[in-house]
Amino acid sequence: xxxxxxxxxxxxxxxxxxxxxxxxxxxxxxxxxxxxxxxxxxxxxxxxxxxxxxxxxxxxxxxxxxxxxxxxxxxxxxxxxxxxxxxxxxxxxxxxxxxxxxxxxxxxxxxxxxxxxxxxxxxxxxxxxxxxxxxxxxxxxxxxxxxxxxxxxxxxxxxxxxxxxxxxxxxxxxxxxxxxxxxxxxxxxxxxxxxxxxxxxxxxxxxxxx
Length: 210
Ligand SMILES: [Mg+2]
Description:
Blueprint: E1 5-8, H1 18-37, H2 41-55, H3 58-66, H4 70-79, H5 91-98, E2 104-107, H6 112-122, E3 128-132, H7 145-155, E4 162-166, H8 169-178, E5 181-185, E6 196-198, H9 204-207
Parallel strand pairs: 1-2, 1-4, 2-3, 4-5, 5-6
Helix pairs in contact: 1-2, 1-4, 2-3, 3-4
The structure holds magnesium ion.
């Protein structure tokens, strides 16, 4: 079946978020936890990491444990970060995206506002038909199959016609199980048989046969 839509992860797939942004978001999430629980900083920081590992996002874990709204966590920790200070326009990325003739969609666990700002700063917003962000997942972040199924339904396409590009191997697994064509960007972790591995986004159009 021909590919009719390409879902592309944002952080570390389209651009290197870099330690500065990640550290800033992490620090703000830890501050949020410390504020809301009264925990000392180090315990709050440890809880942040544990919840991220167990729930996919720390916000989801905080919602589960403390009934804190994931929207509030994201507003405080993610939307408050200004990615334009850390991201530069990337004409080469725009060129590679331009080589993909099928509609492109961002598929991220980040917030919509954050994704919009990163794409605008990279200078590639116009290449994407739409952004699927954490709000669209109803706070069921990747790798929750709920998010993938919701997106496939919204696109009204069989998963076999959808390609999925991500730098985090576990985020490819639900797509692979549904029948999506999966490409892993970078060398993190190990990938399941059936996933194509490429060194950077530059190699994605070729890997998808465009
Ligand atoms: Mg990523």
